[in-house]
Design a protein that fits this description.
Blueprint (H helix, E strand, L loop, with lengths): L2 H12 L5 H10 L6 E6 L2 E9 L2 E4 L2 E4 L2 E7 L8 H15 L4 E4 L4 H5 L4 E2 L2 E6 L9 E4 L5 H12 L5 E2 L3 H12 L3 E7 L2 E8 L3 E6 L15 E5 L6 E4 L2 E4 L2 H7 L4 H4 L3 H9 L11 H6 L12
Parallel strand pairs: 13-14
Antiparallel strand pairs: 1-2, 2-5, 3-4, 3-10, 6-16, 7-16, 8-14, 8-15, 9-11, 11-12, 12-13
Helix pairs in contact: 5-6
Length: about 300
């Protein structure tokens, strides 16, 4: 069996909730030997993780920031420190490739804090409850609609910080990935697209539209959705985390500001993302005055 085949076999065991169509898609287009780190016991792969390319917009700068995803170990090999070993190997590999930051969406935030990850986004998790009020409909998104999807995404994200930058190719890739296992629809008001949503039976994974409309779309009833923290629906929940891989590279991106150079890694993440006020992180007065608070949001989990 090939390395990719072994990785796929481990993935199926570790993430049994993922649909076969989705697994087929990601191992054909997204996950493979070239972006995987794994551990073997007796010539058998028993633990793995992957990293995928992303760019995050932070204070107006598009910064290469790979996501670490699908960290998993076969049940009979857990609690032996293999995942921790892979994380440190991943940090070294990513730093060697020239990355200043990496990100992930954790299963448990406390587990990743020991690796130096800092939570920089809170979202509101809301269970959609159709109000019975008309006004918004859904319509299928086609392969020829990618330019419009990108325009809607860019318009929605522009007010926020810390979001994933998407060109047309990445917009298409995201659509194809979601299409492999879920529904992809435009949100219509009076017949015109004002947003879009990617959703399956339990979750609206990517709701890119006005939060005021979410409870007025009958087809989404009962699903959970993550909304920006500045909406008024749902409970605040910690979301995405960042880790500094290379302070020197990161500081250079922001002009080697001496104010930033004196900060700890946690303070540095909080200052650059403008999340220090939301998370109660103390910053020197001069830093807080220059690196003011911002509202962060991102859809990407993996």
């Amino acid at each position: 069996m090939s390395v990719t085949g072994e990785l796929r076999k481990v993935y199926r065991t570790v993430f049994p909730e993922d649909e076969g169509r989705y697994i087929d898609y990601v191992f054909e287009h997204k996950y493979g030997e070239e972006n995987a780190i794994w551990h073997e016991e007796g010539s058998r792969i028993v633990s793995h993780l992957f990293y995928v390319d992303r760019k995050l917009k932070i204070r107006g700068k598009a910064i290469d920031c790979p996501y670490i995803v699908a960290v998993g170990t076969l049940p009979e090999y857990r609690r032996r420190g293999f995942a921790e070993l892979l994380m440190y190997r991943c940090f070294e590999e990513l730093k060697g490739k020239g990355y200043a930051l990496c990100a992930l969406h954790p299963f448990r935030h406390s587990f990743y804090q020991k690796f130096g990850f800092v939570t920089y986004i809170k979202v509101r998790v809301h269970t959609i409850s159709f109000s019975g009020e008309d006004g918004f409909d859904l319509a299928d998104i086609g392969e020829g609609d990618m330019l419009l999807v990108k325009r809607l995404y860019d318009s929605f994200m522009t007010p926020y910080n810390g979001y994933a930058v998407r060109d047309l190719e990445e917009t298409r890739r995201r659509f194809e990935e979601f299409k492999s296992y879920s529904s992809c629809k435009f949100i219509l008001k009076e017949g015109k697209p004002i947003g879009y949503v990617y959703f399956d039976d339990g979750f609206a994974e990517e709701y890119c539209g006005p939060w005021q409309a979410v409870d007025r779309i009958a087809e989404l009833n009962g699903r959970k959705v993550c909304l920006p923290i500045d909406s008024s629906l749902g409970e605040p929940t910690d979301f995405t985390m960042l880790k500094v891989l290379d302070r020197g590279r990161l500081l250079a991106i922001f002009g080697n500001d001496a104010l930033l150079g004196a900060l700890s890694d946690e303070q540095l993440v909080r200052a650059l993302t403008g999340s220090w006020g939301q998370f109660g992180t103390e910053l020197p007065e001069a830093v807080a005055g220059k690196y003011f608070n911002l509202t962060n949001f991102v859809f990407d989990k993996y």
